[in-house]
Automatic annotation (TrEMBL):
Record bears the keyword Transferase: no
Entry protein name: Nudix hydrolase domain-containing protein
Organism: Brassica oleracea (Wild cabbage)
Domain Nudix hydrolase: from-to ranges: 40-182
Alphabetical list of Gene3D superfamilies matching this protein: 3.30.540.30, Nucleoside Triphosphate Pyrophosphohydrolase
One CC-aspect GO term: cytoplasm
């Protein structure tokens, strides 16, 4: 007996705990499927093969023995997703079983999920099916004789122009399985967009997107570096280039192929040149400033050749296909299987030992599927006895070729540099790349005291939008600004004072807060996780163990901040801030608040005790909403901290008005990054809260001002709200807060449209002439 196992879903597509085991109706057609008899909601895959050169779809003719729509023309390939099976693996399996075509995962583009609800056979067959719709794009038709048909399922295949097929569906032609074009019409819309390309319109759109970034040149004086340090700098920059290669792969598995293809064809036309320029900013096909909407499609992607995807046919070399990427940016980037959901991950996690759980939820591992991997003895340590398809693998193995090269370069640089603290950092980081243990190298980074300032490795978790667990690789190379660094010692030295006085119940306050070293640098090169808006400062490391033991360190990128102030914040203030308060916007206030923002990442709740007595961390409890909440906390508590330091006489009272107005202008700068980005979300939350409390005032001339009589209390109330949510590890409260306030309200929309109309840049895109010279 052949059996199938189905996950039963809710009518909104969520998995239930119910799994039905049923006889396969194709082997035993007289046995009625319980799923279809009772109308249970379940999952399936639809795979469409589209031929780019002829603009045709492949259709299969259903077997005459099928219990639904026998003998009619239908989707290229389709089938149920068995209980616990991944969607993508199911799509690959169905295509191979039904048509004899074996393709790798990068050939499958998931377009959307389509709910199909219909009743057949006098009410005996009720189909409530959530279909994961995939598109496979091939350049040329596959010869019909190359298909190997599964006789129980398929009686024939043919090609049909997509517009003709759409018209047949609209007419409800009896020879074709009917589909509701109100839902399934999205497939034809996507194909039409790709077939009917308006080159001029696309070029204009990309030009408009590029104009939102103001080009700036960032460099610094290298004369204080000796010859050995300058030689080491060249090696470190080469290692940073390797970091870039890793980050491209972390975003999406076919992203490196897309990058190479766009670069190779950049000079083919003006449109291709624009695609390449915008890709270099975003480092992916999704636009950071447009809520991660795609500006490229799979039709723009790399062409790959597969000679053995089907049985051999004389005179035919094989399949050429487009390396696919999804229309919607995957929330888990390339850290998790694209078809993994939270329920599957959580179920697998519960089967692991404590050590395996730490690896699975840690910063430095990738979650993969056994069914996709060629497992060998080297992976046995990462596998559990669980029946789950998931396993975790450390970065040191996943990115081994890249990390081996970067490690060698850092060891060579470490042998050359004259600073002992930098020497220790470079060697320890080189070892961490291969061992996957970053503790010692992060301590060495915190202790760094060198003219040549280096940050390199996996740190921030913004790209993991599922859980916020996985760290992206990045590199920042700069020259330390000794005078500016000395001027900022006040902030790092007073972290304990700020922690003790936070607007937060004492039970949630951290007991062990250390002074935070602050380094100011002039950036000369960055790579990796710096796609879209440019980083102005960072507070690291994120490892809760180190934060508890040693605190954090901050790095301020002063020349980046100066560029953003001149090219973005000043023009924003001229348009959005009321004439009476416009003069309060100054670089000192902007820079000082950025310092306090980074300081405040290091205070407040980190390691927490939950109501049931378990110890955890804010990051692990808030998961996917952690980044936005943490950015909002650092911002608003940073503003509170400035006022606190003023009242204690540690900062000049003359800064009071300018810091609030500069903050108001800065709100519009960050919100323009988009509400899918953590900083943009956090800023929208703060702006709308302060506006609701009357601290920000909207005027008839569409400008804004600060009500100095209300701003202090409003800042403190929001600080208390966010800090308390973090202290409790209350994800539900965090989600409600973000859902309520992370919106584009009327006044905010007016201001953003005004800035758009006068073409104020949203961010900068830097060039690094020193790096170019050294790398060449």
């Amino acid at each position: 007996m052949v059996e199938e196992h189905f996950d039963v879903l809710t009518n909104s597509g969520e998995k239930t705990e119910v799994i039905w085991t049923i006889a396969n109706v194709y082997v035993f057609p007289w046995k009625q499927s319980k799923v279809h008899r009772d109308g249970d909601y379940h999952r399936a895959v639809n795979v469409w093969i589209f031929v780019e050169s002829t603009q045709e779809l492949v259709l299969q003719r259903r077997s005459d023995d099928k219990d639904s729509w026998p003998g009619r023309w239908d989707i290229s390939s389709a089938g149920h997703i068995s209980a616990g099976d991944p969607s993508l693996i199911s799509a690959q399996r169905e295509l191979e079983e039904e048509l004899g075509i074996k393709l790798p995962k990068d050939a499958f583009e998931k377009l959307f999920v389509f709910l199909q609800e219909c009743v057949l056979n006098d009410g005996k067959f009720i189909n409530n099916q959530f279909n994961d719709v995939y598109l496979v794009t091939v350049l040329h038709p596959i010869p019909l004789e190359a298909f190997t048909l599964q006789k129980e399922e398929v009686s024939a295949v043919k090609y049909i122009p997509y517009e003709e097929y759409k018209n047949l569906l609209a007419k409800k032609d009896p020879g074709y399985v009917p589909y509701d074009l109100n839902g399934y019409g999205k497939l034809f819309h996507i194909i039409r967009q790709r077939c009917q390309v308006n080159t001029e319109a696309r070029s204009l759109s990309l030009q408009k997107q590029l104009l939102r970034y103001s080009p700036v040149t960032l460099e610094a004086n290298l004369t204080e570096l000796c010859e050995a340090d300058q030689k080491a700098l060249g090696l470190i920059m080469k290692a940073a280039k390797v970091i870039d290669d890793i980050f491209y792969e972390q975003l999406w598995h076919s992203n490196p192929a897309l990058r190479d293809w766009l670069k190779e064809h950049a000079n083919a036309s003006e449109l291709d040149k624009l695609k390449w320029k915008y890709f270099l900013i975003n480092k992916s096909p999704w636009s950071s400033l447009d809520e991660n909407e795609p500006y490229l499609s799979t039709a723009d992607s790399a062409v790959k050749f597969l000679p053995e995807a089907t049985k051999r046919i004389d005179g035919w070399k094989g399949i050429e296909y487009r390396a696919a990427f999804p229309v919607t940016k995957p929330p888990g980037a390339n850290f998790y299987p694209p078809d993994m959901d939270k329920m599957e991950f959580t179920s697998w996690l519960s089967s692991l030992t404590e050590e395996q759980k730490r690896a699975a939820t840690g910063f430095f591992s990738v979650i993969k599927r056994r069914s996709e991997a060629n497992l060998d003895a080297s992976l046995s340590d990462h596998l559990s006895d669980s029946n789950s398809d998931l396993y975790s693998s450390p970065y040191s193995e996943i990115y081994q070729p890249f990390l081996t090269k970067a490690s060698e370069l850092l060891h060579k640089a470490g042998d050359l540099v004259t600073s002992q603290s930098l020497k220790k950092l470079l060697h320890s980081k080189a070892e961490a790349f291969l061992s996957n243990d970053y503790y010692e190298s992060d301590i060495a980074w915190m202790d760094l005291d060198s003219k040549l300032d280096i940050t390199i490795g996996p740190y921030e978790t913004y790209e993991d939008e599922i859980f916020g667990y996985k760290a992206s690789f990045e590199a920042f190379i700069g020259i330390k600004d000794d005078k500016s660094t000395a001027d900022l010692k006040l902030f790092g030295d007073n972290l304990k004072l700020l922690e003790d006085n936070l607007p937060l119940d004492s039970v949630y306050k951290s007991k062990d807060v250390s002074a935070a070293p602050i380094r100011v640098i002039q950036l000369i090169y960055n790579s990796g996780d710096v796609n879209g808006p440019q980083t102005v400062a960072f507070n690291l490391p994120n490892d809760e163990k180190i934060v508890k033991e040693r605190g954090t360190s901050m790095v301020m990128l002063k020349n980046v901040q100066e560029a953003k102030f001149e090219h973005i914040l000043k023009p924003i203030a001229e348009i959005i801030i009321s004439k009476e308060q416009r003069g309060f916007v100054d670089f000192e206030s902007f820079f000082t608040h950025t310092i306090c923002h980074e300081c405040c990442h290091g205070i407040g709740p980190h390691s927490i005790t939950l109501p049931d007595g378990r110890t955890s961390s804010v990051r692990k409890e808030l998961q996917d909403v952690y980044s936005a909440v943490e950015e909002a906390k650092a911002d608003i508590v940073g503003l509170w901290a400035l006022m606190f330091l003023i009242t204690k006489g540690l900062l000049s009272k003359s800064m009071e008005e300018s810091m609030y107005v500069s903050f108001l202008a800065g709100c519009f700068r960050s919100i323009r990054f988009g509400l899918t980005e953590a900083h943009g979300k956090g800023q929208a939350l703060q702006f709308n809260w302060l506006y609701e409390k009357g601290a920000f005032v909207f005027h008839e001339d569409s400008t804004f001002s600060v009500d100095f009589t209300k701003i202090e209390d409003a800042v403190e109330s929001l600080s208390r709200e966010i800090l308390t949510i973090q202290g409790r590890g209350d994800k539900n409260a965090a989600t409600l807060l973000l859902n309520k306030y992370c919106t584009i309200t009327g006044p905010l929309k007016t201001a953003l449209e005004k800035l758009e109309s006068v073409k104020v840049p949203v961010d900068i895109t830097p060039t690094f002439p020193l790096a170019d010279a050294l790398l060449n």
